[in-house]
Amino acid sequence: MSQYQDIKESCFEANMKLPQLGLVLFTFGNVSVVDRQKGVFAIKPSGVPYETLKVEDIVIVDFEANGVEGQMRPSSDTKTHAVLYQHWEGIGAIVHTHSTYATAWAQAQMDIPILGTTHADHLTVDVPCAPPMSDEMIKGNYEKETGFQILQDFEKRGYDYKEVEMVLLGNHAPFTWGKTADKAVYNSAVLEEIARMAYLSCTINPQVPRLKDALIDKHYERKHGKNAYYGQE
Amino acid sequence: MSQYQDIKESCFEANMKLPQLGLVLFTFGNVSVVDRQKGVFAIKPSGVPYETLKVEDIVIVDFEANGVEGQMRPSSDTKTHAVLYQHWEGIGAIVHTHSTYATAWAQAQMDIPILGTTHADHLTVDVPCAPPMSDEMIKGNYEKETGFQILQDFEKRGYDYKEVEMVLLGNHAPFTWGKTADKAVYNSAVLEEIARMAYLSCTINPQVPRLKDALIDKHYERKHGKNAYYGQE
Amino acid sequence: MSQYQDIKESCFEANMKLPQLGLVLFTFGNVSVVDRQKGVFAIKPSGVPYETLKVEDIVIVDFEANGVEGQMRPSSDTKTHAVLYQHWEGIGAIVHTHSTYATAWAQAQMDIPILGTTHADHLTVDVPCAPPMSDEMIKGNYEKETGFQILQDFEKRGYDYKEVEMVLLGNHAPFTWGKTADKAVYNSAVLEEIARMAYLSCTINPQVPRLKDALIDKHYERKHGKNAYYGQE
Amino acid sequence: MSQYQDIKESCFEANMKLPQLGLVLFTFGNVSVVDRQKGVFAIKPSGVPYETLKVEDIVIVDFEANGVEGQMRPSSDTKTHAVLYQHWEGIGAIVHTHSTYATAWAQAQMDIPILGTTHADHLTVDVPCAPPMSDEMIKGNYEKETGFQILQDFEKRGYDYKEVEMVLLGNHAPFTWGKTADKAVYNSAVLEEIARMAYLSCTINPQVPRLKDALIDKHYERKHGKNAYYGQE
Which of B139, C24, C178, D187 sits a CA distance of 20 to 30 A from B207? Predict the structure, then answer.
């Protein structure tokens, strides 16, 4: 049995949740799960349909995206995952989808404005949409540069990846992450729902105001603050 | 067996209907059911997924939201439910969801205009959207003030909670209620459909007129008036 | 066994198709099936959920909507069905739903413009939206007047109910019909899809032109004309 | 056993995927599969519901759309398929649907603009919408002319059917194709998702810019170029 069996299994299970949650069509998505002690992560193989995906198909690579274990070619987005793992040490898993509403905002090159408490329960700022990359970055090491584009956008905005666990890449689609695979997948589903609600609010009322600061703080604090009182922990 | 077994069971069953009706994602919703003689109500525990929820997880609290029975922490919205039960004596159950279209209207801070007989079969006025609370209310006893914000909006509009069994809380999401748990859940599903139809009508025809008064009266009367002739009773 | 067993069964089966086709929420719809030789029609009882509906619940009434057989109260829309059966002798069944997109157009008080061949395969004109009734009609024998409002709108437009088997009632919702129960239900599903496509086309391109006459004629003729070559008959 | 058994079976299986992928209502779609050596193709019979369709119902016709084998009348769109097979020798299968969002764009008579990498992963240009035919073409051999309208539009735009495997026919609906039946069906589902995302992006941001050229080239190349690194081949 593989010494990476645990992350292969959790990676497999997390990938299988994407079609169940309605977040992917065909192979348009992938999840990775990291083992920081071993310096590797598990990721979905490229272009394999979810209906036939098996645990043993999951590929193990290092933080330079070099193959470590597995017969198949890893996801074409592997280098993007690698860059994020390298720079954001608190991340345990990353999810990439082309979920419909989140991708529609990414294509529109717009941040998703914070309009309600559904959004504020999860993050206190607009969902950032990183601008499309420069031609140089695109023509260079594209997937690696995709990771750097995300890092630079967070740096420029002064965002903390532990507080904001999702991003839209302009013209492309969303990435989400979290301490665990469950949380990263949860964030992808939440992002899609936030994106859908904001689409509806903005098209019914183009002058919709952003959520007031007091509500943003309150909802985030009750779920994530020191005295959080949401959930059972 | 608990002396509150009956409301725990009906509360459990009503909660389980929310995902079946497509009204909740993950844990974004809760139902409570009251026992007025015993002065308590049953409510969903906070943050517990519907897939694993069991009857014995349901929490019993009094009208001040103090715990009476149950191992788990009650829903973070419990104080809002408590305020409504205290002031509206005819209510038997309350439902809170973040259903997509109703929440989109709440985020847009707009009443849902009465545009058709689907709406008029259930209420004779626009679905009210209570404005977001003042900063003082938000920073204070937030969930309790949420209940008062709803009460005050109904008072200001001159609405009767027995006639209008639903409200949007601006920037947040809908609450519905009814004499029974079934009716309260039914109202949440009806509200979501009304919200969706009104969204479509308003985006295809921004000048859509409100329903004429004669039709409002007729449809409401045939379902709820003295000589009602809808249904089998 | 009832002498009306055959229309009770086909009425029951046709009603059960409405939730399967996603055309009704709760009890928001009804189908009737006529027996012209016996001068009666079978119709869904009022307010009975589809999950519990049984063949023996179906009610038999005459063309004045008087009860002929059955324990339950017939649909509150029974008089509308009766008027249409009285005046349009070629109709075998009628369907009323509050399907989402068709109802949204009815609420918007707009005809559904003919924009494509999906529409032209079924009718050669815009789907008519009859205007809301006058206050006098509403306050009078409302459901009966609903039938007359539809008749008058067709007369005014010069439409033939055999060529145009669907109508929107302004502020209310759609009615469809056909020679058979299957065809009437089919028309309700087609109308909902036409309504949805037209909504999307009109919101993406508000200047969308109506379908050109040559295409309207061609598509309708190939399906319904003398030399029709669609289908197996 | 028929000498065309293999294409009859793959044609049947491909047709059955259309309702599974949510691309057809009732009988609004058809797939054909060609056998170039025998000079025939297999196609769905006209107007037969997917629920009752059987392998032996599939009809075999030649490239002039003359019947070769089968009891049933072939799809009314058969001549359109025949023209495309005659002129585009690299095509192995053709799919025609009235899928909702793609048809909405066809009705709006608009190309679907290339706005994101989901689109660019499949084609480097806007999805072409061929203009509605002239009255002469419509009144003539309509379905045959439909094929020529597609051919002429591709010629006028300088598009290669091997690079652009989908088209909208203005006022009508989409056609897609591919080397295999699987690929042609896949293209229909991808087109519907691209159409939906573009609808959402354009309605939330009417000034949305087209995807930059560097991104178009990069995404297409990584999936289809000489050094493609997507998938397992």
Answer: C24
pTM as predicted: 0.97
The answer on pLDDT for A217 being more than 70 is: yes
Residue A70 burial (CB count, 10 A):
19
Contacts of C118 in chain D (CB under 8 A): 28, 98, 103, 173
CB A14 within 8 A of CB A93: yes
Nearest C-alpha neighbor of D13 from the set D53, D40, D47, D49: D53
Enter the DSSP assignment of A93.
E
* Shortest CA gap D107–chain C (Å): 5
Predicted ipTM of the assembly: 0.95
- Provide the 3-class DSSP secondary structure of residue C193: helix
Q: Which helix (H) or strand (E) holds B69?
A: strand B67-69
Neighbouring chains to B with at least 3 Cβ pairs closer than 8 Å = A, C
The rounded distance, in Å, linking the Cα atoms of B24 and D79 is 48
Torsion, Cα of B18, B22, B24, B27 (10° steps): 70
Please enumerate residues of D whose Cβ is less than 8 A from a Cβ of C: 25-26, 28, 45-48, 72-73, 76, 98, 100-101, 103-110, 132-133, 135, 138-139, 142, 171-173, 199, 202-203
Say which DSSP state B112 is in: B
The pLDDT assigned to A70 comes to 96
CA separation for the pair B164, B224 (Å, rounded): 12
For the stretch B192-212, pLDDT in tens is: 999 999 999 999 999 999 999
How confident is the model over B87-114, as a mean pLDDT?
A: 98
What's the average model confidence in pLDDT over D177-195? Answer: 98
Gap between the Cα atoms of A211 and A120, Å rounded: 8
User: For chain C, where are the E strands, in sequence order?
Assistant: 29-35, 40-43, 59-62, 67-69, 93-97, 129-130, 166-169, 174-178
DSSP string, D146-177: HHHHHHHHHHHHT--TTT--EEEETTS-EEEE
